[in-house]
Design a protein that fits this description.
Blueprint (H helix, E strand, L loop, with lengths): L2 E5 L7 H12 L5 E3 L16 E3 L19 H6 L8 E6 L13 E6 L4 H4 L1 H5 L6 H21 L5 E4 L2 H11 L3 E3 L19 E4 L8 H11 L3 E4 L5 H7 L4 E5 L3 H10 L3 E3 L8 H7 L4 E4 L4 H4 L6 E4 L4 H11 L6 H8 L4 H19 L1
Parallel strand pairs: 1-2, 1-4, 2-3, 4-5, 5-6, 6-7, 8-9, 9-10, 11-12, 12-13
Length: about 375
């Protein structure tokens, strides 16, 4: 079986890229086709992969301006020649599923979510640093992108959703059924510790929609210690907002992140994610999560057992959740047991089984 893996872009490291890393462990010989690849932004293990880029790799300042090249991505993926492969496995929240295929090729799409900036435009742009006039006119330019996105579903034989939340969006957007295989969590790396520190933790890309701002404002008000791991376009703005109780650690290696997770009081998870691997990583370390009750967190956090929820993204509700958390008690062993249900080896086994079964049926 010759398999090609296709991914939207490799210019930052997050949950979708952890999926690619796990897929590479399953299929180490499979090339990975992507629009652009920034080796400096990804862990060292990506440098050992067979990564093949599109013509976009040579565009001026593409790593900084990748969002501004929006309308070139469909052309980039349609230009890939994947005719020699038996299976195309796309990992996509945007463009990768738009690759072309022969009728006798099997195309399985691991969908992180339907295009957020197209199908959930208002939610996506409301906190982004986009000029107001662009926010008003951009939807008109995105209409052809919507049609292109829907038309692509005819090239996909099977959808895999990373969560129930995404499965519902696939049904609503594309009128397609999907099987759910949750993303991988490296429970072997994130382990409990006997050390207990007084700080709370945020691990996130510093993008506007992640809502790290409300965490900082709340912890400024409560004067509790907060450590923030991650980097992104909102970094400067968030540092200006932060009081002396907030420490920015930047982007760290997984081993360093694991140590901080193992020692924290709790992870604060203020955004709405399609699934969200980070809460399960901290749960694997036996630590609870204070999470916004929306999206994938509702499928992984068990209120009162592995964490607590807050129901609105504002300082008042988060303040209440933190105070409630301080009166709760949590069992590290039970929290870790819950996280192990999402372990990477389970993901790899489920993916391998799904691909092999569908290929046999397809032939």
């Amino acid at each position: 079986m010759k398999i090609a893996i296709v991914h939207d872009f490799l210019n930052q490291f997050g949950g979708a890229e952890r999926v690619i890393s796990a897929l590479n462990e399953i299929y180490p010989e499979a090339p990975i086709f992507t629009s652009i690849y920034d080796a400096a932004a990804l862990p060292a293990n990506f440098q050992k992969m067979d990564i093949r880029v599109s013509f976009m790799q040579k565009l001026p300042f593409v790593f900084k301006l990748f969002k501004w090249y929006l309308f070139l991505y469909p052309l980039a993926f349609e230009a890939f020649d994947l005719s020699e492969y038996d299976v195309i496995l796309s990992s996509s929240s945007a463009f990768a599923k738009g690759v072309r295929k022969r009728d006798d090729q099997l195309h399985v799409c691991y969908c992180h979510t339907p295009m957020r900036f197209v199908w959930r435009y208002d939610d996506y742009v409301k906190k982004e640093s986009i000029p107001a006039y662009l926010k008003n006119i951009l939807p008109y330019f995105l209409e052809p992108m919507k049609k292109w996105d829907v038309d692509n579903t005819n090239r996909i034989d099977y959808f895999i959703a990373n969560s129930r939340t995404v499965a519902e969006r696939i049904q609503e957007t594309y009128r397609r059924e999907s099987v759910i295989i949750n993303p991988p969590v490296d429970c072997g790396l994130f382990r409990p510790s006997e050390l207990n520190y007084d700080y709370f933790l945020v691990v996130s890309r510093l993008n506007a929609y992640k809502r790290v701002d409300i965490v900082i404002e709340t912890f400024n008000k409560l004067d509790l210690p907060l450590k923030i791991i991650g980097d992104g376009p909102e970094s400067v703005k968030l540092k200006r907002l932060a009081g002396p109780n907030v420490e920015f650690l930047g982007r760290l290696a997984d081993e360093q992140v694991a140590r901080h997770m193992a020692g924290c009081q709790a992870l604060v998870f203020p955004g709405e994610e399609d699934f969200g691997i980070v809460p399960l990583e901290v749960m694997s370390a036996g630590r609870p999560v204070i999470a916004y009750k929306a999206g994938g967190a509702t499928e992984t956090v068990i209120d009162g057992l592995t964490g607590v929820f807050f129901t609105k993204q504002d300082v008042c509700r988060l303040d209440q959740a933190i105070k409630r958390f301080q009166f709760e008690s949590f069992d590290k062993r039970k929290i870790r047991q819950h996280a192990q249900e999402f372990d990477k080896e389970i993901f790899k086994s489920n993916m391998r089984s799904f691909i092999e079964t569908r290929l046999r049926e397809f032939k």
